[in-house]
Each structure stands twice: as C-alpha cells, then as structure tokens.
Specification:
By secondary structure, this protein is an alpha/beta fold. It has a single domain, classed as Rossmann fold (3-Layer(aba) Sandwich). Helix content is about 30%, strand content about 15%. The protein is built from eight helices and eleven strands. The protein has a seven-stranded mixed beta sheet. A four-stranded mixed beta sheet has the order 6-7-10-11, covered by helices on one side.
C-alpha cells in the first residue's frame, strides 16, 4: 500500500489546528468595517447590539492605522459609534500595561487597516499569546478586515502591502482557516490583466495547505465554541489546496 507522507503530515498539522480551535470562542470576524452607502459599522449594528449586550467597556486596538490615521483619531471614531450603545471604548495604546489590559478586558475589538502594521505591533508589544489566551477562553471579540485576518492561522492571504515586516507571519490561529477579507469575485469580462484574488490564493496554496475563506464586504463569520457560520446575506468562497473552489451560501457552517 502506498502512503503519501506529505499528505499525512499536512493532515496531522491540520488536525492539531482543529483541536486548538475547540475552546469557548465568541467572535464576529467581519470582512470590512463599512459597506458602500453605510457609515462605520452601521451594517453590523443589529448584530453588535446583541453580541455586546452584556458589555459596558470595550478594549480597542487601533494598531492597524487605516490610511495612516493616528491611534487617538481611530479610537475616537470607534467610541463615537459605540457611545449610543452604552459602551465605553478604551484604546489599548493608553494602557500602562497592555498585557494586563487584555487579560482584564470584558470585550475586545481590533479594527482594520494594514495587517502587516497590526501584526508587527502585536509582536513588538508581546501581546500575541495573551490575546490568543483570552479569545480562546471566551472574551467577546470583534474583528474587522485586518482584525479578522489575524484570527486565521497566518496573515499570508492579506491583500495589504508589506510596508513593515513583522517578526512572523503566523497569527492567532483562532480558526483553522486563513481569511481573505474584501474578497472580490473574478469578472470574466474585465480587461484588467493583473492577478485576481483567486489567482493569488492559488499561488498561496503552492506553498501552504491551510484552507482560505474569501469573505466579501458585508459578510462576516460568527464563531462560537463549536461552529463557524457565514453571515451577511452574501456568498463566500472556500479555497482548498488541489480542490475546486466551493461557493458557500449564508449560514454555511465551516
């Protein structure tokens, strides 16, 4: 009988990741913080009201700095949204002990921006392990874009430019997938000759074997202890090494 050793090793590694996933998870991982025609987080508001219904204070990570915005300005934007919901927002950049702030947080939000910048800062501050610990133990977590990317096995399928270099591309591994946020389907009638998202993910799978979820803007993953469910009313796409792409409808369980 012939055994494919490489396949067995890859399968074993994936099962290890699956086993790590079995904790008291409670996350919303959104592709984006806003959608066309809507203000910041407004499209998620009905779900966030329920998700954070026991939350009085939220610890926000502004490290991804979209468009180079300052930590304070980014935190103010988030605070403006959550104030009418009765939730106070505290920026982690103001904490005297960031690791302790994470361990004491009643809920966490990591916003979008540049994933390289975000991951580099988390490693620089030595926050990855504590962040993974509290999320795995059930602290409610909201991620958008880059903040969702880091909950995958690695940041290798981000769309962002590598404007800084983090210590590692390995991320939190909260879910046993990678995420490609802001996913755009290929347009067969387009005259654009650059790589599509699908092409880039295929290139990723030439070197790595973890599956990738292509998540459109307006979609999110609702992650609980035993399920990852697609939400938002739009299709997502599951890319697996050496397999056809799967189109996934809303409420698909990954």
């Amino acid at each position: 009988m012939h055994f494919n050793l490489k396949y067995l090793i890859n399968k074993f590694e994936f099962l290890i990741i699956i086993n790590k996933f079995r904790y008291m998870k409670n996350l919303i991982l959104a592709s984006s913080s806003s959608v066309h025609g809507s203000e910041f987080l407004e499209y998620l508001k009905p779900d966030l009201l329920q998700f954070f219904n026991q939350t009085k204070e939220l610890l926000f990570f502004p490290y991804a700095r979209p468009s180079g915005v300052s930590y304070d300005a980014y935190t103010e934007l988030v605070a403006k949204f959550f104030m009418p919901l009765g939730i106070k927002v505290r920026g982690i950049h103001k904490a005297s002990n960031a690791c302790k702030a994470i361990s004491n947080a009643s809920a966490i939000f990591i916003g979008g921006g540049n994933t390289f910048v975000l991951v580099a800062k988390l490693y620089e501050m030595g926050l990855m392990d504590e962040l993974k610990k509290v999320i795995s133990n059930g602290t409610p977590y909201l991620g958008t874009s880059a903040g969702s990317n880091i909950c995958g096995v690695s940041m290798n399928t981000t769309n962002d430019m590598p404007i800084v270099m983090p210590d590692s591309f390995e991320t939190l591994g909260i879910i046993p997938y990678n995420i490609n946020a802001h996913f755009i389907e290929s347009d067969k009638n387009s005259t654009h000759r650059g790589e599509t998202r699908e092409t880039r993910i295929k290139e990723y799978h030439e070197f790595h074997h973890y599956p990738v979820i292509g998540l459109k803007e307006g979609s999110w993953l609702r992650v609980t202890s035993d399920k990852i469910i697609l939400k938002g009313g739009l299709k997502a796409f599951l890319f697996q090494k050496d397999k056809d792409v799967l189109s996934c409808d809303t409420n698909t369980i990954f």
